[in-house]
Structures are given as structure tokens and as C-alpha cells.
Amino acid sequence: MPLFRRGASDTSIEAAQSIDLPKLERMVLNAIRQSKRKGMTQDELLRKFEAYSYSSITARPSALKRKGLVVDSGERRTGRSARRQAVLVAAEYAS
What we know:
The chain is 44% helix and 17% strand. The protein is α+β, with helices and mostly antiparallel strands. Helix 2 packs across helix 5 (60-66). It has a single domain (10-93), classed as Arc Repressor Mutant, subunit A, CATH 1.10.10.10. 17% of the residues are buried. A hairpin with a 5-residue loop joins strand 1 (70-78) and strand 2 (84-90). The longest helix has 14 residues, at 21-34. Strands 1-2 form a two-stranded antiparallel ribbon. It is built from 5 helices and 2 strands, in the order H-H-H-H-H-E-E. The protein has helices at 10-18, 21-34, 42-48, 54-58, 60-66, and strands at residues 70-78, 84-90.
């Protein structure tokens, strides 16, 4: 799956191709694993990795879910927007 949209500028394509996806996925997975059964929401991940762009962090849980490494715990917590967010846990902590 490409990391840039159709018609993206050359600079956007270069930026997308420079991202170390395995590293970002590993960082997010490790953070979720460290939270154990408590899990983490998207907002919690964004706070933990505030030095990274929004899209660099928010795209990682989906990839980790597809790989079976992270699951939706079924729990929900209220995020900054006052909307409920899924709590993600590492597969080994899923009930």
C-alpha cells in the first residue's frame, strides 16, 4: 500500500518514502505492550509520541492490527474530542 495519495507532489512522495515504517510500528507496538492490559487509545499514543506527526502515529495501529499484533480490547475511553476511542492492547494481553 503506497504511503502517498495519487497525484501527490514529488516532495510528498519523497517524504513518504523516507519514513522508517518498521521503526514506527515497533515504537507504537512497544508502547502498547508496555501498557499491558490497560491498553492505549489513539490520543494516548499521540501524547506519548508528540514529537512525531499525527499521521505517522495514527496510521500504525491499523497496520499492527492487520498483522495480528494489536487488537481492539472492546473497552472505550473518552478522548480529547470528548468522543469515545477504542482501547488497543497487544494481542498477548487480549482477554
